Amino acid sequence: MAPITVTIKLFAHFRHGRFKEADHQFPPGVACREVILGLGFRLGEMGIVMVNGQHAPLDHPLSERDTLALFPLVGGG
Fold this sequence. Notes:
Order of helices and strands: EEHEEE
Low-confidence stretches: none
Largest sheet: 5 strands, mixed
Mean pLDDT: 95
Shape: globular
Strand content: 35-45%
C-alpha cells in the first residue's frame, strides 16, 4: 500500500531542534503513538494529542492528509 502523508505540528519546547510544522509519510493506519515514539518523544511527556483539531487517543489511526498536533505537558500555577 502507498504511504499516507500526515502533517505534524509541534508546540512549545517540542519544536526545539525539530520543526514547527512538517509533512511526513507513514504506512496507512499508523497510530498516533507510533508517530510520537518515532519522533523521539516519550509518551509520558505528551500533554495533548489532537488529530484535525479534535482530541485523539494514542491508538487513533491516522489517515491521508490528517493533521497531528502535539502539545507537551505544561506545569505552573
